[in-house]
Design goal:
Blueprint lengths: L1 H14 L13 E7 L2 H12 L4 E2 L7 E7 L4 H10 L3 E6 L2 H15 L12 H9 L6 E8 L5 E7 L7 E7 L6 H16 L5 H6 E6 L4 H9 L52 H15 L3 E10 L3 E4 L12 H19 L4 E4 H4 L7 H8 L3 E7 L11 H21 L12 E2 L4 E5 L1 E12 L4 E8 L1 E12 L5 E8 L4 E7 L6 E5 L3 E6 L5 E14 L7 E5 L4 E5 L11 E6 L7 E9 L10 E8 L2 E8 L8 E3 L4 E6 L8 E6 L1
Parallel strand pairs: 7-8, 7-9, 9-12, 10-11, 13-15, 14-16, 23-25
Antiparallel strand pairs: 1-3, 1-4, 2-3, 5-6, 6-8, 10-12, 15-22, 16-21, 17-20, 17-22, 18-19, 18-21, 24-31, 25-30, 26-29, 26-31, 27-28, 27-30
The chain binds zinc ion.
Family: Belongs to the peptidase M14 family.
Keywords: Carboxypeptidase, Disulfide bond, Hydrolase, Metal-binding, Metalloprotease, Protease, Secreted, Signal, Zinc
Subcellular location: Secreted
């Protein structure tokens, strides 16, 4: 009798796959829930930062989030949706069915060799990589995973000294199988159609790391299809692994990370605690020490149809050359869409997805690599049917070739020998590689006058030099980097000494002149830009307002303002004097911290731009006193909910 029961138990265990430790998802559901208010979003964030539920997508701004729940968790989750009035739909009724269908399809499609009709084992990928025999490809090992698996890089080069270099990597997240399959597909594509890429390899070297998180990947094949992390042991915890894409040292332990080893977004015991992330960091640094210069780093993930660009660690933060990254992202997703109609969105990672600290694309950008991005590839779950490996790879490769082409076109430029433009007016806009501001040369400037020149250098590095100056002490010329997308001032330097070089990074500056009481005459200032193209920043709304008194309404012509606005209005009356800036109308999406849409007022005092207030909603702020009469009004909106804007007066 006992023996019979024992036998039955064995049969049950075998049938359910438990002898291999395979995790089952019977009765697990995936819900897509919609946050339409900040309160709902906050409730989701609390759940997300806990470790109970597997969030397939992260709660970003307002919008949809996919959450997997075990059968016993479902009542609690639905109760929470109900308490917060959140709408939801069931995206997958039974995750086991989804996973099982993939297992069957993958087994059926498998031909016993790598051919991109099925998802491969790590061993099969290694066999493919280590048997590459080509005069344009070299395979090397850049490190080992926690469990001792080799991490490979394939270098494509036609030989000679290092060329401008590009790094692609994939499968840092275990369950995102399509990422690794795309990585190996790209390698195979360059190998088998080498003739098509001869011209490219005259210009660049391409490195591909197709399988970073090999331990996690294998575990997701043999044990838990939804495993995301590495497989390192966490001291004092029975939970294993950390999220390698929270483990890089830039903005480590920041937004959307967890200190809980059981969380899927656990950031690890320290930056680069994982051998997998160490391997990438070491590879890049050692290559650079050997003369390699990386111009692009693209990391492949799934799913969401997104092209994410830095900074990803928080919303509203942008590198100075953001326009160049955005234009590349938009060109890349256009090329991708042209292949078979798949629609992607390109944008700043935290603005369109969610803020996340310690990610590889931010790390790479902060390290100094010009173009970096995270691709969240196609699909509505981590389970992408194997017959979509090749269609996905074809479209992603079209996008990656846009990156390659952009890198080829990105050439460091030297400074012009002499300024290509000259401006003599008080204020004005100058978009050029170099220019001279020759203002009131040898002529008087009245006390109290202020001028603002808007300077858009073509290239990333700007050198400014005062050639001559008749300004007295107390007067000044200031270079202020102004982030066109964040709407905030950055680096701020006084250009005081004739003949001295002042250097800046950025593509948008306010050059501000203030004049003290005394015998001032004019000056000649020259600036030159060099390096890589940063792209011309643009504003959704812009005005330079110089009448002594006036009123300005936005949007011009009425109606609602648009999504994703970045507007700048400069109030700088030609007649000097103290003034008051007052808002007479305000209708801007409201939340407690004005984190979605916001108006900011900055004034010039103590020789710098200072934010006086940031506000939203419909309550008019108290009028602002402007000691120098000079103010900046900036406006930002997010990707949902608009209003009718605002009107302000100055007098
Ligand atoms: Zn991922």
């Amino acid at each position: 009798m006992k023996a019979a029961i024992f036998l039955v138990l064995i049969l049950v265990a075998v049938a359910s796959g438990r002898e291999t430790g395979l995790r089952h998802f019977k009765g697990y559901k995936v819900f897509t829930t919609l946050a339409t208010t900040k309160e709902q979003l906050d409730a989701l964030r609390v759940l997300y930062l806990g470790s109970d539920y597997d969030f397939w997508t992260s709660p970003n701004g307002l919008g949809a989030t996919d959450i997997m729940a075990a059968p016993e968790q479902i009542p609690e989750l639905l109760k929470m949706f109900g308490e917060h009035g959140m709408e939801y739909t069931v995206k997958f009724e039974d995750v086991e069915t989804l996973v099982e269908a993939e297992r069957v399809a993958n087994a059926k499609a498998s031909t016993g060799r790598i051919d991109w009709t099925s998802y491969q084992t790590y061993d099969s990928i290694v066999e493919f990589l280590t048997t590459i025999n080509s005069n344009i490809a070299a395979v090397s090992v850049i490190g080992q995973t926690t469990e001792g698996r080799d991490i490979h890089v394939v270098k494509f080069s036609n030989g000679g000294p290092p060329k401008k270099s590009i790094l692609f990597d994939s499968n840092i997240h275990a369950r995102e199988w399509i990422a690794g399959a795309t990585g190996t597909w790209v390698i195979n594509e360059i190998l088998t159609n080498a003739d098509s890429y001869t011209a490219i390899l005259q210009e660049v070297d391409i490195y591909v790391i197709p399988m970073i998180n090999a331990d996690g990947y294998e575990y997701s094949r043999t044990n838990d299809r939804m495993w995301r992390k590495t497989r390192s042991v966490n001291a004092g915890s029975s939970c294993m692994g950390c999220d390698p894409n929270r483990n890089f040292d830039f903005q480590w332990a920041g937004e959307s990370t967890s200190s809980d080893p059981c969380s899927d977004i656990y950031y690890g015991s320290a930056p680069f605690s994982e051998p997998e992330t160490q391997a990438i960091d070491r590879f890049v640094r050692e290559a650079e020490a050997a003369g390699v210069q990386f111009y692009a780093y693209i990391t492949m993930h799934s799913y969401a149809n997104l092209w994410l660009i830095p900074w990803g660690y928080t919303a509203g933060a942008y590198p100075p050359d953001f326009p160049a990254l955005l234009s590349l992202g938009q060109a890349a997703v256009a090329a991708l869409q042209a292949v078979s109609g798949t629609v992607y969105q390109a944008g700043q990672g935290a603005d369109i997805l969610y803020g996340a600290g310690g990610t590889s694309y931010d790390w790479a950008k902060n390290h100094g690599i010009k173009y970096t991005a995270t691709i969240e590839m196609r699909g509505n779950s981590f389970v992408l049917p194997p017959e979509q490996i090749i269609p996905n790879a074809l479209e992603v490769w079209a996008a990656l070739q846009v990156v390659i082409q952009r890198v080829i076109e990105t050439v460091p430029v030297e400074e012009d020998p002499t300024p290509v433009e000259t401006v003599t007016s008080c204020g004005g806009e100058i978009e050029a590689s170099s220019a001279a501001i020759n203002f009131q040369l040898d002529a008087d400037i009245p006390a109290g006058q202020s001028c603002i020149w808007i300077v858009k250098p073509t290239f990333d590095n700007t050198r400014a030099r005062l050639v001559s100056s008749g300004l007295i002490g107390g007067s000044g010329i200031y270079f202020t980097e102004f982030n066109a997308y964040a709407g905030t001032p950055g680096q701020h330097v006084q250009i005081a000494n004739v003949g001295e070089d002042y250097t800046f990074n950025g593509n948008f500056f306010l050059v501000t002149l203030t004049v003290a009481v005394g015998a001032n005459t004019g000056f000649s200032l020259e600036w030159y830009s060099s390096g890589l193209a940063g792209g011309a920043p643009s504003f959704s709304g812009f005005a330079a307002l110089s009448t002594p008194t006036g009123s300005y309404s936005y949007p011009v012509g009425g109606g609602q303002y648009a999504n994703s606005e970045n507007a700048l209005f400069i109030v700088n009356p030609e007649v000097a004097g103290t003034r008051t800036l007052a808002f007479t109308r305000l209708d801007v999406e409201n939340d407690a911290t004005c984190s979605y849409d916001a108006v900011s007022v900055l004034t010039w005092q103590n020789n710098e731009y200072t934010q006086l207030a940031k506000f939203c909603g419909t309550s008019l702020p108290t009028p602002f006193n402007l000691p120098t009469g000079l103010a900046l009004v900036t406006f930002r909106s997010d990707s949902s909910v608009t209003g009718t804007g605002f009107t302000f007066t100055w007098a």
